[in-house]
User: Fold these one by one.
Assistant:
Number 1:
Amino acid sequence: MAEEKGRVGSSFEDYLREQGTLEETTAAAVKRVIAWQLKEAMTTEQLSKNQMAKKMNTSRSQLDRVLDPSNDRIQLATLIGAAEALGRQLRIELV
């Protein structure tokens, strides 16, 4: 007799929602991905942190906060500026 495969219980998203941490967890995950993408783009463009900060018209310490995957308190305008400094666009979607 073959076992039927399917979902057992609720999803992880449902669990996070029940715990009241879905939004916080989602924001942290999004920030980690953006920080990783920015670092990868800087590597591709062969930009040092000092060069990147200069292109963004900001300080190296501010750039370090942008690139810190655990810092999810970065303003949207700062992320847009980082993307533009790399010749990229920041795209945010509602799904």
Number 2:
Amino acid sequence: MSAWFEIIRDTLKRHEVRLVAYVPDNVLTPLIRAITEDDYFTSFVTTREEEAVGIVAGAWMGGTRGIVLMQTSGFATLPNVLASLAVPFQVPVLMLVSERGTLGEFNLGQALVARTMRPVLDSIAVEHHTISRLDECEFIVDRSVRQAVATQQPACLILSPLLTGGKVFAQ
């Protein structure tokens, strides 16, 4: 059976998602590595999450599908760009968030964002799904990309630490 990051990479390819803008994250490192090593994708680091959303939105307007990769704390910078650009202008920005702030998290800032991320997504009408198990990974990614493109609305995939193993903390 394939690893979660291989499933996501392959599903993105099937849906012609070629552009990957990301802010580095330890949990997402296997996916970032798998994407950067694959010539199919154009991938690059951004300094901020809202920069990545702007780039992916512009790429969509130019005919290229893209996705933004980030961790939970980075999501906290996005409500304005989502509510003022992606949602009203019907840009299917895809986001993939490695979830921190739960299951043993030590960082209060991460925990606060984790508790507010889903309610914020709900309040600005952004479809979101949490992937917790390997056996649901392909289905959720596949259907979320299909729905985002069909409805021309953003979508957020949240990777639970139950799937990824989360961030490993020193004892």
Number 3:
Amino acid sequence: MDYSHIITIEAAKRGGKPCIRGLRITVYDVLEYLASGMSEEEILRDFPDLTKDDIRACLAFAADRERRFVTVPLS
């Protein structure tokens, strides 16, 4: 998924953390809600400015960051 038009980073907003469409909702916030057990529907109900595509963009962004981590070979 191309999340480049959804995930924004602005130095003056939320300390430069990746946010959703310039809102003050960070990728971390959404991932934390999902990790705590909230369903997609619950998140969308609690944050009506968000869309399903926003949630998917957060997951794609996190997956890309994970892919970029350096792996240490096992000895």
